[in-house]
Write a structure and sequence with these properties.
Elements (H helix, E strand, L loop, with lengths): L4 H32 L5 H5 L1
């Protein structure tokens, strides 16, 4: 069995990056909805 640590790290980093991008998109959408419903100010969203 061929095991290459650099390939494993690369795959793990790609997977982690995708998860963080999805998480950031969901949070942005949630904060955007709060701003759109006037529950928070625009400075809350920008920060």
């Amino acid at each position: 069995m061929n095991y290459d640590e650099s390939v494993f790290k690369e795959k793990a980093n790609r997977r982690a990056r995708r998860i963080w991008i999805i998480f950031a998109a969901l949070l942005s959408a949630n904060y955007g909805a709060d701003v759109a419903n006037h529950l928070r100010g625009t400075s809350y969203y920008i920060v």
